[in-house]
Design brief:
3 helices, elongated, single chain, alpha+beta, 2 domains, 173 residues, 23% strand, five-stranded mixed beta sheet, 5 strands
């Protein structure tokens, strides 16, 4: 993954190219070249590209890596204060906890808004079990609650449901 320093370097090169295209567009209008309007379009595109690269150089794109976390799929997110992630049925309680911490870090955004009575992001982890053919049941394995306001929330609350792990299918490993 590219770092912010690399995006800044690309922004500089893109900015130089934008200035070159702008100078060519001005020359094209002065000398009435046939491609003058194409050069204006190219200059505008380069300006948008340079702005995007500059924005990427300001915001870090790295994700927090929590040891022991496994791959998860985001299956529900209301964009405010609730989300649900899906996990594999072959998972341990410690992996669920690490994955919930990973999801809480990855899903934090200052753009999320909570209600006045609930300013916490709640992420629930679930898996699907098939007790009999044709029947699928969602099984919630745990949840995490974190602040919607504070990125470094010291009061993150993780709750694992150990009784639910007995219902998971046993792997034949």
């Amino acid at each position: 993954m590219l770092t912010t320093a690399e995006f800044l370097k690309y922004t500089q090169w893109s900015g130089i190219a934008t200035l070159v295209f702008a100078a060519l567009a001005i020359l094209a209008f002065l000398f009435k070249w046939g491609i003058r309007f194409r050069l204006v379009g190219t200059t505008g595109f380069m300006l948008v590209l340079t702005s995007g690269l500059f924005a990427l150089s300001l915001v870090p794109l790295s994700r927090t890596v929590i040891p022991g976390a496994v791959k998860y799929t985001l299956v529900y997110d209301n964009g405010s204060n609730q989300a649900v992630i899906s996990l594999s049925p072959q998972i341990s309680p410690s992996e669920v906890e690490a994955t919930l911490l990973q999801a809480a870090s990855n899903l934090y955004s200052s753009g999320r808004s909570g209600r006045r009575d609930n300013d916490q992001l709640t992420i629930r982890a679930r898996t699907l079990i098939h007790p009999e053919p044709g029947l699928t049941i969602p099984l919630y394995l745990g949840e995490i609650k974190r602040s919607l306001v504070n990125r470094e929330d010291p009061q993150i609350s993780v709750e694992i449901y150990p009784e639910k792990f007995a219902q998971l299918p046993q792997s034949n490993a």
